[in-house]
Hints:
Order of helices and strands: HHHHEHHHHEEHHHHHEHHHHHHH
Radius of gyration: 21 Å
Number of domains: 1
Amino acid sequence: MLERLFHLRENRTSVGVEIQAGVTTFLTMAYIIVVNPSVLSSAGVPFSGALFATCVAAAVGSLVMGLLANFPFALAPGMGLNAYFAYAVVQGMGVPWQVALGAVFLSGVAFVILTLSRIRALVVDAIPRSLKTGTAAGIGLFIAFIGLRNAGVVAANPTTLVTLGDLRQPGTLLSLLGLVVTAALLARGNRGAILLGILGVTAAAMALGLAPPPRGIVSVPDARSAVLALDVAGALRLGVLEVIFVFLFVDLFDTVGSTVGLAEQAGFVTPDGRIPRINRALMADSIATITGALLGTSTVVTYIESAAGISEGGRTGLVAVVVAGLFLLATFLAPLVGAIPAIATAPALVVVGALMMRAVRNVAWQDMTEAVPAFLTLVGMPLTFSVANGLALGFIAYPLVKLLAGRGREVSRLTYALAAIFLLRYIYLGVAG
């Protein structure tokens, strides 16, 4: 049955590898189970209800991704969009959180329409191959930067923006040790290196008193406090078109960027630059966003942490199905899952970032009309802390450089149109979202 559903032999993988990859992906993104409810609760969403919505929406999105698209990509409520929901829309604009959920729901409906009409698939196909490659490498730098920050290796600085952290901190030293051990295990060909690294650092951190042990094992969230609390009619009455547009725009290009980068890493991109079953993958996050809004959480997106499972050898939707099962289990085991410290997942993110940098070899660096847009995409993601912004920089630069170089005919009309949309977005909304 699993072979029929996921074509394991065709993808040169096995049930054991897929399960291991699913566990690895889940552990690298499990922080969202606690972080997302914390962010949303600041906007008035009941914490327990938001926790339930986070887990179930992630499970639904990942399950649909696995069964419908057969991709090893996991989904969950997106960081950044949840902050925009809580701090910009609810606190900043004074919109009730129920109405804000209504706006999320409407953006999800718009996603479904765009997906069924294949507009989102056309957007993916319109991305030049050099930008697809730059996206994969950029996501690698992005998640490596997040890992180094979580480990305490890099820290904020008001003068230089970032600087070297305090390497004398026990947690930082333990995380660096985990990074070295994980890299060594990978060099020895250990397929479970990333998962072993996460579990090993977690155990060591708790033993050394650097992370608190779980405060419990089982908890039952209050699901009813946020389910069907959304106010769609209120969103339509208030006319929060700008809010709906931001949810729509950022999720569209964030998901497109993540999906393209992950597909490039997994080897799914065909020689002509296309991604098979892309419309099914995009439908998964559309369904998940609508489900999340009905349950009580902000927009659901494809997670770049899926790269950890791909690095472990995951190649089919069975990975996403395993993640879905673990999120459902985590609904009742939140204290246990939430005990995994950031310093334990940091080495995994850095190692995966290094593995994803292999994509840069496919950029035509000798051609400046390809190299510069790809480079802007690559560096834009970690420096703006956004997959969507990095992709936007590359998309705007690509047709402009081609046009000024006298090679404008190499660019499709849709690519020109998308570059114009990106420009209008920044002119109208600045850096909102």
